[in-house]
Design a protein that fits this description.
With about 250 residues, the protein is mainly alpha-helical. The chain has 13 helices and no strands.
Amino acid sequence: MGLFDSKDDRPVAQQAPANAAETEPDGPLDKLAKGFVGKIVDLGIDGVGPLGSSSQVVAKARRKHGNNVEKAVNEIVTDHVKMAGVGGFVTGFGGLVTMPVSLPANVLEFYTLATRMVAGIAETRGYDVSTEGARAAILLSLVGADADDLIQKAGLGAASAMTGSGRLARMAMSRMPKAAGMMINKAVGFRLLTSVGGKALSRFIRFVPVAGGVVGAGLDGLLMKRIADHAKREFPLRETAEPVLGDLADTSA
């Protein structure tokens, strides 16, 4: 049985009231997942302290490239792939000795940068990243092919047009119920945290300082580029005249 499996195969929205996510108490894993997602959203999209927000990243790229949207997007991607590589090098530099400390820091750093990069791509192409729907779509873009499964688990499947090509763009322009957003955030948090195991296995080979850093830089840079390519497909340039979808709670009836 998977982490999100249940005995009832019906969508989540049909199994519980819309406010179930708000009324059911969170367990330790729920709190960990929500806390992790909260941090990468706060740091990556809104910016905290010296870390600039996604809007600041977009403004910098636009100042340099003017109205050329794709050049601005490519610069945002290139900058974040480089930063991911540097982060992977630094946290992998010490090899196995420093892995227990460096690994959690690298996971948070990596997904904060990935969140900011995806938000930057979306905002540059015309999406309002401050909305509940847009933030859920940005987080879902981090899990790749797993997004379809998480959308179904949140009860936002075919009935609400959140399947197929462009589903995350449609979600970003929708008025998402708070409960659905909370379920997606929690589910994304679980999926991202399971990546810690994968990173640990990949870093087990990093016994030699410097060599471990090179491996870390390559892996993190490659994964960031994959997330960027996925986000660029999911958030096409938005036409200003494009209509905004209605409330997802209404379309799922």
